[in-house]
Amino acid sequence: MSATHDFHQRVISDAGAAVRGLTVALGERLGLYRALAEAGPLTPAALAERTAIHPRYAEEWLHAQLSAGYVERDPDTGAYSLPADHAPVLADPNAITFAAGFFTALKALYGTEDLLVDAYRSGDGVGWAEHDPALDTGMGSFFQPTYEHRLVADWLPSLTGVTAKLAAGGTVADVGCGVGHTTLLIAKAFPQATVHGFDYSEEAIAIARGLAEEAGLSDRVVFDVASADDYPGTGYDLVTFFNALHDMGDPVSAAQHVHKSLDTDGTWMLVESNVSPDDIDTQTPAARMFMALSAVMCLPVAVAQRGPHALGNHSGEQAFRAIAEEAGFTRWRRATETPVNAVYEVRP
Predict the structure, then answer these.
(1) C-alpha closest to that of 314 among 239, 229, 268, 247
(2) Across-strand partners of 240?
(3) How far apart are CA 164 and CA 264, in angstroms?
């Protein structure tokens, strides 16, 4: 009875977290966490005035955050504050620990529930384009802090000779670029390089073009709608895949196209989830998130492409290396890693 009770409480806790995620999305979209970080402590009325929301909703939202342990309340003044240790997670998009942006993708993921029910029964997939565009922006926001802090500072320098090539005017194809965060980071860091971003999502490419315009980079960064096995160009010094290969229905075909598009001394930087089939029962926070995302997003997206493979996001290094070797690559190296991502250097 005790074990059943404990498990029941765990599931109730998970249910609370699932609903709380929507309150986090609201806090991110309405700037509520940022207001608390910048001007707190704030009463519900002061938060409402500062963020232009209704006072009654401000009060209820703060109650949800207090019960979650996300904010604190002064019992004497009734004012709420965001602890300093919480601000880099919820209020600062530039912090490597920022996670609030992910929750804005929930409406896209939950919105496909009926499609997933049908897919689970039929064995068909749910394509990326069948999701609300919030999936592009939400997932982009989730990965962006790591890219901001790691890509130029750590990941690219870990690859043999790549930064020197880019500094001298090399060419880059960022494949599966989504809304273009990584593409623009590379372009900013290497102003002499020619950078192309490709994605098969028209919505994502439209957003990427807008971001390039805002950043003043649209004159030297080109975004086009293309898939991983037909993007144009050859002789690239660097081809990048950021958490994209596992979403593809035919990863071998994609890898073969990378091989053909690279310069003979070029590099394929493959960034993937730093999990494997061995992590299924580890129940670490990262593993739990990856397994859940794979079941509702990654696997259905791959299946929808009707290719020969449907990897899921935790296929692991052995599977990815086998794909690269089948495509003709002869050199493979785990260049660097974080708790969430593994960065592979793959060369002809």
Answers:
(1) 247
(2) 174, 269
(3) 16
Distance CA 101, CA 99 (A): 5
pTM of the predicted protein model: 0.85
User: Angle at CA 183, nearest 5°, toward 240 and 167?
Assistant: 80
pLDDT tens per residue across all 348 residues of the chain: 689 999 999 999 999 999 999 999 999 999 999 999 999 899 999 999 999 999 999 999 999 999 999 999 999 999 999 999 999 999 999 899 999 999 999 999 999 999 999 999 999 999 988 999 899 889 888 888 999 999 999 999 999 999 999 999 999 999 999 889 999 999 999 999 999 999 988 888 999 999 999 999 988 899 999 999 999 999 999 999 998 898 888 999 999 999 999 999 999 999 998 887 777 777 788 888 888 999 999 899 999 988 787 888 888 899 999 999 999 999 999 999 998 899 999 999
In angstroms, the CA 151 to CA 191 distance is 16
Q: How big is the chain by its Cα radius of gyration, in Å?
A: 22
For residue 105, the one-letter residue type is: A
